[in-house]
Automatic annotation (TrEMBL):
The active site is at H345 (tele-phosphohistidine intermediate), E421 (proton donor/acceptor). Substrate binds at R397. Residues 145-158, 184-194, 270-318 have a biased composition (Low complexity). Residues 1-136 form the RNase H type-1 domain. This is RNase H type-1 domain-containing protein.
């Protein structure tokens, strides 16, 4: 059965005033935009325009495949809550629109999800294009639309990543070098995207302000309806522009040689690859000869020669006095560590296809296999009985995996923005081979330099590491002495482990991490860390 994503929005310049809507239909498996629709609808309220956008999206889905499942994503809390049945519909203008939306497709095929305004920019831009056209006395022209291009450009803007604040989780030896390298990580923008609720904008072209509209007051909520699943509460908001997921890609299993993976680089050897068993791939860093362009020691000032890395790793284990460090011989007065159990989410439809799946893509849900994996890991964690808190990345696959565990353990899930995956820019939805064919030079640079960004301006691994380190420091302080489940993605988990070991950046490419696997790192009061578990999948076996 096919799955589509509908993103819809509507706006009114005056409320009521000149109004328009925009809607996008996306293939959930590939991330391809299948349909764009927008229309100037004359004078109407914001909410009526939003419902009109929803109707247009559902009609487009019915035309494509009436048997498909649909995930509707809107930044209108009102529409989402009403169509989900949690809020009653009292306004006479909206009742017939909601009734029509409910009849277009069988309700069992459609789910509704609130998303922050910043994640609904494509539909928002279409709605504003429609209103602009109406102001000119015209209707929206799909041939003249720039909504998709402008949305993609905005999504590639890099975030400001906080500099790591201290050593917790870094091994003592070599940590200063790693932090110095990461501090030089480049970002293409100094502004951090901030989530907005519906009532925070007064711009003339805004399509928000749902919560303050005369036809969308809280009087439309009744009793228990008003308490259900408020997507704007503090522990479930989603930060934008912070990451996605790599390792839905597998390189060497496809039969590629090192030269095929990195392209010809006359004179030097090309990057290798470390391959995960369930989509857990990580492209390897270039380590060419001294004369070749892939020579990391010559071309990358932050690179760490293997011999030096091995020495530092040995010193990390021994400690400055030559005695074993935490993990082999803890001092008796350190107290209980903060222990992070790191769970990679279950499979999505993109996992077996070996496609890049990041924050800029379709945000796919778990597949049937992934849901089964989530249930299995939930049962395993329930048997262990040690988890005290659950935090998750804001992406759908991690929230769903965390939800399965939380239901079994009777705990709440807190969304942590810093756990989100890396952004893969223009590579979203592509296989490794497709990226190599379309962007060979960018791919080679990305494989060989942790500061290199994917084509179109995604997030470099250096920037991801700085973000993860800052998140780690915050969580270590907040959960001292506690055991916390962090449901996240391949790159953040490998980064937690890399920093705990004091290993150089290229160590990311020497780890295998499977879907729904468990890893664990303990963080002690003296700033040391101990890797306790890595890539455990025993709970997935029959």
């Amino acid at each position: 059965m096919r799955e589509f994503i509908v993103e819809a929005d509507g706006g009114s310049r005056g409320n009521p005033g000149p109004a328009g809507y925009g809607t996008v239909v996306i293939d959930a498996a590939t991330g391809e935009t299948l349909v764009e629709r927008a229309e100037f609808i004359g004078v109407a309220t914001n909410n009526v325009a939003e419902y009109r956008g929803l109707l247009a999206g559902l009609r487009a889905v019915r035309e494509l495949d009436p048997s498909a499942t649909v995930r509707v994503r809107m930044d209108s809390k009102l529409v989402v809550e009403q169509m989900s049945g949690r809020w009653k519909i009292k306004h006479p203008d909206m009742k017939p629109l909601a009734g029509e939306a409910a009849r277009l497709l069988p309700p069992a095929q459609v789910t509704y999800e609130w998303i922050p305004r910043e994640r609904n920019k494509h539909a928002d831009r279409l709605a504003n294009e429609a209103m602009d056209a109406g102001r000119r006395g015209e209707q929206w022209d799909p041939e003249a639309s720039r909504a998709a291009l402008d949305t993609a450009a905005a999504a590639r803007a890099a975030v400001t990543v906080p500099e790591p604040s201290g050593p917790p989780g870094d091994a003592a030896a070599g940590a200063a070098k790693a932090r110095e390298a990461l501090a030089r990580g480049r970002t293409s923008s100094s502004s951090t995207e901030v989530e907005s609720t519906e009532a925070d904008s007064t711009e003339v072209d805004s399509t928000e302000a749902d919560a303050t509209e005369a036809d969308a007051t809280e009087s439309e909520m009744t009793g228990a309806d008003s308490t259900g699943a408020d997507p704007t509460k503090a522990d479930s908001t989603e930060a934008e522009m912070t990451g996605a997921e790599i390792t839905e890609v597998e390189m060497t299993k496809a039969g590629m040689t090192k030269a095929e993976m990195a392209g010809s680089t006359g004179g030097g050897s090309t990057p290798a690859a470390a391959v995960g068993s369930a989509g857990g791939v990580t492209p390897a860093r270039a380590a060419g000869s001294a004369s070749g362009p892939a020579d990391a020691a010559d071309t990358d000032p932050t690179a760490v020669p293997k011999a030096a890395a091995d020495v530092r790793a040995a010193r990390t284990v021994a400690g400055p006095s030559g005695k074993p460090s935490v993990g082999w011989g803890s001092a008796p007065d350190l107290g209980a560590p903060a222990t992070f159990v790191l769970l990679r989410h279950g499979e999505t439809p993109l996992t077996p296809q070996k496609r890049f799946s990041g924050r800029g893509g379709t945000d796919p849900s778990l597949s049937d296999v992934g849901r089964e994996q989530a249930e299995r890991v939930a049962a395993a964690l329930a048997r262990r009985g040690t988890i005290q808190h659950i935090l998750a990345s804001p992406l759908a696959r991690t929230r769903q995996t965390a939800g399965a565990v939380a239901a079994r353990l009777g705990l709440e899930v807190t969304i942590e923005e810093g756990l989100i995956e890396t952004d893969f820019g223009a590579w979203e939805g592509l296989t490794f081979g497709e990226v190599q064919e379309r962007h060979p030079e960018d791919l080679t640079r990305w494989l060989g330099d942790p500061e290199a960004e994917p084509t179109g301006g995604g997030e470099s691994f250096a920037a991801t590491a700085a973000r993860v380190a800052a998140t780690r420091d915050k969580l270590v302080a907040a959960y001292a002495g506690r055991t916390v489940l962090l449901v996240t993605h391949v790159t953040p988990i490998k980064t937690f482990v890399r920093l705990a070991l004091g290993a150089p950046p290229e160590s990311l490419f020497r780890m295998e991490l499977s879907a729904a696997s468990l890893s664990a790192v303990a963080y002690y009061a003296d700033g040391n860390a101990s890797v306790r578990l890595f890539n455990d999948t025993s709970h997935l076996r029959p």
